[in-house]
């Protein structure tokens, strides 16, 4: 029986016919936690819906209300509320042989980015030096560490809560010899790396909105032979190239050349909007 039908049966004595019609069709799960979106008109009934949701999914441990909105510089999930089961928001999510530990009420985790998390790791060549400028809990650094022969991955994160999980995740995945977690603002930390003589084969700039003001810092670690920068953003599909053009404008103004190697749309991000990633080869221009 489908989830909505099961939930409907479980709630038939608690909700009106109209309310039953508005029940969610499905849910997202992370580890043994159910994250469910409940429409505004059923908000008052959220606790009983949570309890019944758990009753029809007895293998799960807990149910949390999930607004689905991610906001602010730290990309924090909004309005995540415990509804039923065991109130323990710290999960260990296993994906593609990587363990991600985090607090679902404080840290975002987009299952829609799974393909991109897997894909980036396949691009990495043995011996590469990588800088992950917006590392979070290790969304990209961990799969690269597990699935590639990168030499070192410098993972920079500014949110102290995410940073603490990043450190734990490095240990959990036994990547202490490859990943160097750095706490701080990547705008400054990446320049400090360049001052130590570190040059990157690959730089990941994975944050929304497109981190245009961080491009000059990223350029400080570009190698003479060229560096691949993975630059992300959210944009209308037909207008996607304008994000690359913006990147190129900044790079050219700092005497770097850019070649757009490839791009991909990771997921839909609201009406007409898409999460896009560019793979850009950047090189210092000879003067
Ligand atoms: C949530 S991740 C996005 C990861 C990836 N795009 C995804 O969706 O799976 C972005 C991270 O960048 C961090 N961040 C934002 N500004 C930063 C800065 N200036 N320096 C370092 N980290 C920063 C945020 O705290 C957040 O953890």
CATH fold type of the largest domain: Rossmann fold
Name of the CATH superfamily of the largest domain: Vaccinia Virus protein VP39
**CA gyration radius, whole angstroms:** 21 Å
Share of helix among residues? 25-40%
Largest sheet: 7 strands, mixed
Distance between the termini: 68 Å
Q: What letter string, H or E per element, gives the SSE order?
A: HHEEHEEEEEEHEHEHEHEHEHEE
Broad structural category: alpha/beta
- Name the ligand types: S-adenosylmethionine
The domain tally reads 2
Gross geometry: elongated
E-strand count: 15
- What share of the residues does DSSP label as strand, in percent? 25-35%
In the predicted model, the low-confidence regions spanning at least 5 consecutive residues are none
Task: Give the tags.
287 residues; alpha/beta; GMP Synthetase, Chain A, domain 3; Rossmann fold; 2 domains; seven-stranded mixed β-sheet; four-stranded mixed β-sheet; 28% helix; binds S-adenosylmethionine
């Amino acid at each position: 029986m489908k989830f909505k039908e099961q939930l409907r049966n479980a709630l038939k004595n608690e909700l009106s016919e109209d309310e039953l019609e508005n029940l969610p069709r499905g849910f997202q799960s992370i580890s043994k936690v159910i994250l469910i979106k409940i429409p505004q008109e059923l908000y008052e009934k959220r606790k009983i819906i949570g309890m019944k949701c758990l009753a029809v999914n007895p293998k799960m441990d807990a149910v949390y209300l999930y607004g689905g909105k991610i906001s602010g510089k730290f990309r924090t999930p909004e309005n995540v509320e415990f509804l039923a089961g065991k109130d323990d928001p710290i999960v260990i999510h296993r994906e593609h042989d990587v363990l991600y530990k985090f607090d679902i009420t404080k840290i975002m985790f987009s299952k829609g980015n799974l393909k991109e998390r897997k894909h980036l790791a396949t691009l990495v060549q043995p011996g590469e030096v990588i800088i992950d400028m917006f590392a979070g809990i290790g969304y990209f650094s961990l799969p690269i560490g597990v699935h590639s022969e990168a030499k070192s991955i410098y993972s920079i994160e500014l949110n102290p809560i995410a940073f603490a999980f990043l450190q734990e995740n490095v240990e959990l995945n036994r990547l202490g010899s490859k990943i160097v977690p750095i706490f701080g603002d990547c705008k400054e930390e990446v320049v400090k790396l360049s001052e130590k003589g570190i040059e990157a084969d690959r730089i990941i700039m994975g944050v929304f909105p497109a981190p245009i003001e961080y491009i000059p810092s990223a350029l400080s670690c570009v190698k003479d032979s060229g560096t691949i920068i993975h630059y992300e953003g959210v944009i209308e599909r037909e207008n996607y190239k304008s994000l690359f053009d913006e990147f190129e404008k900044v790079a050219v103004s700092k005497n770097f050349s850019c070649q757009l190697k490839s791009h991909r749309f990771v997921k839909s991000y609201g009406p007409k909007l898409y999460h896009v990633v560019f793979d850009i080869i950047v090189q210092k221009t000879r003067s």
